[in-house]
Amino acid sequence: MFKKTVKILGMRISLLLLVVILLILAAAGGLMLGYGILGGGNPGRVFTPGLWRDVMNKLNP
For 6, what's the count of Cα atoms within 13 Å in the CB-facing half-sphere? Predict the structure, then answer.
């Protein structure tokens, strides 16, 4: 009984971890795609703090 419970719990945790990793990758890919292709900028620049500071300054006058 204990081994079965641990196995099920391990599978659920690994599935949850997989979903979280996929969500992070999808968000990063979407940011790079949106900034690089739609925005016409360098896709790698989307992760720099300066860009986000500029964005926040534009959103909060």
Answer: 3
